[in-house]
Amino acid sequence: MNVQTKPAEDAVAIVAELGRRAKAAAIALRNAGTEAKNRALAEAARLIRGERAVILAANARDIAAAQAAGMTAALQDRLLLDDSRIEGMARGLDDIVALPDPVGVKIEEWTRPNGLVISRVRVPIGIIGVIYEARPNVTADAGALCVKSGNVVVLRGGSDSFHSSRAIVDLLRRALATAGLPEDCVQLVPTTDRAAVGEMLRAMDWLDLIVPRGGRSLIDRVTEESRVPVLRHYDGICHVYVDRDADVAMARDLVANAKMRRVSVCGAAETLLIDRAALDTHLMPVLAKLHALGCEVRGDAEVQKRDPEALAATEKDWRTEYLAPVISVATVDGVEGAIRHIASFGSQHTETIVTNNGATAERFLGEVDSAIVMHNASTQFADGAEFGLGAEIGISTNRMHARGPVGLVELTTYKNVVRGKGTLRP
Predict the structure, then answer these.
(1) Which residues neighbour 388 within 8 Å (Cβ) at sequence distance 6 or greater?
(2) What mean pLDDT is predicted for residues 374-382?
(3) What is the share, in percent, of the chain residues with pLDDT greater than 90?
(4) What's the Cα-to-Cα distance from 13 to each of 3, 74, 97, 132, rounded to whole Å?
(5) In this predicted structure, what is the pLDDT of residue 264?
(6) What is the topology classification, in CATH, of domain 11-231+406-418?
(7) Per DSSP, what are the bridge partners of residue 186?
(8) pLDDT at res. 9
(9) Closest CA to 357 of 384, 338, 376, 382
(10) In CATH, what is the architecture of 238-381?
(11) Residue 366's CB: how many other CB atoms inside 10 A?
C-alpha cells in the first residue's frame, strides 16, 4: 500500500517507511540536474492551476471541519484557499523555476602555498522534515524549494489542513514522476496522529533538519524534544516604531498596513511603539485609522489618556503574538527607548522604524538585533517572495545557519573540495 494513503495505524512503522523512501529518493535528487528539477516544478505549477477545483474541494472539507470545531476567524483565514491564493501558489513555483539553482555553485576558492586548490561548493542539506500548522500554501512552497535545492522533504501538515495538503502533495508527486524524478522526493506524513511528530523528532538516522512552522506550543515541543537539528521560527512579535521625525501620513498608512493587511501572518505588527515626543502629533491619526479598520487598541497610560477607546495594556500584551485585529501600543523615549523595548519583549523576527531622520534610522537598523529590520516599510514585507526568493520555507529567528526568510540558498550547505597533484603532507 502506498504510504501516502496508508491509514494511521503505527506511527513508528509509518515514519520508518517514510525514511526508507526518502533515503532512496535523496540519491537521485542530489544528483539531478537543474533542467529536470525545473521541469518538475513547472509541471507542478501547471497542475495546480489545472486542478484548482480538486484543491478547493479538499480545502472546503478542512474549512467545514474548522468551523464545526469553532476555529477563530483569523485561524480560518490562514487555512482558507481561494482562486487567488491558489494562483499565488502556482506563481510561487514559477518564480522558483526562474531562480538560479544554488546546487554546485562555487562559494570561494583559494590556493595554499603547497599547491593545494581548495574550494567550497554548495550542496543540498539532504532530507528535511517540515512540521507546520494550518496554511496549506506551505505545502507547495516547502515542496518546491526543497526540490529545487536538491533536498528530499517530508511534510507533516497540521490536522486542520490535512485534506488540502494531501491534494497539493499528490500534484507535486505527479509532476515529479512526469519529470523523471522519484515521487518520494516529496512525501506527506499520512496520519494526523501526533505520535508521528515524535517519531520524526527522533529520526536521526535519516532526517538532516527539522523546520517547524506554527504556534509557540509546536515550536517549544520541537525545540525541546528533537534530536535532529532544528531551524526554528519563534513568535512573530513584530514592532513598528513611529519616531518624532516621521511623516504623519506615512506613519498612519504604514502602521495600518503592517497590522491589518493580513492579521494572521507572522509578519503582522503586534506592537506599536510611539516616541513620547510624537504623542500629541502622531498618535491619534495612527490610532484613528486602526479603529476605523476594526482593530482593538491596548495601550499604556499615555495612550489611554489620549485615546478613549484604548483598553489598558498589561506586560503580557508586550509579549503576545495576537494573530488577530488587536495591537498593543507603548510610549517610549525616542529611538533608544524603542530599541530597549524591542530587546526586552521582541521575538527577534521583524521590526520597522518610521522616520525621515536618516541618522535615527541607521541607529535603529544597526542596534536592533532581529532577523529583519526595516526603515519606512511595512513589516508585512517579511516574506520570501517579497525578498525575491520565490517563496520561503519559513522565517528563521535562529542565529546559526540562516536568519530571516529561508529560501533556496539557505536550504544548502557546502562541502570542501581539495585538488592536489600527488601532494603529500610533510
Answers:
(1) none
(2) 98
(3) 85
(4) 10, 36, 35, 21
(5) 86
(6) Aldehyde Dehydrogenase; Chain A, domain 1 (3.40.605)
(7) 153
(8) 57
(9) 376
(10) 3-Layer(aba) Sandwich (3.40)
(11) 10
Burial of 149 (0-12, 13-18, 19+ CB in 10 A): buried
Residue 32's contacts (CB-CB under 8 Å, 6 or more residues apart) are 150, 181
- Give CA torsion, residues 135, 136, 140, 142, to 10 deg: 50
Q: 210 - beta bridge partners?
A: 129, 230
Phi, psi values for residue 33, rounded to 5°: -80, 165
pTM, 2 dp: 0.85
Given the C-alpha cell 520565490, which residue does it identify?
390
SS3 287: helix
Q: What is the DSSP string of 194-263?
A: THHHHHHHT-TTT--EEEEES-HHHHHHHHHH-SS-B-------EEEEE-TTS-HHHHHHHHHHHHHS-T
pLDDT at 89: 94
Domain ranges within the chain, ordered by starting residue: 11-231+406-418, 238-381
Longest dimension (CA), the chain: 81
**Do 238-381 and 11-231+406-418 have the same topology in CATH?**
no
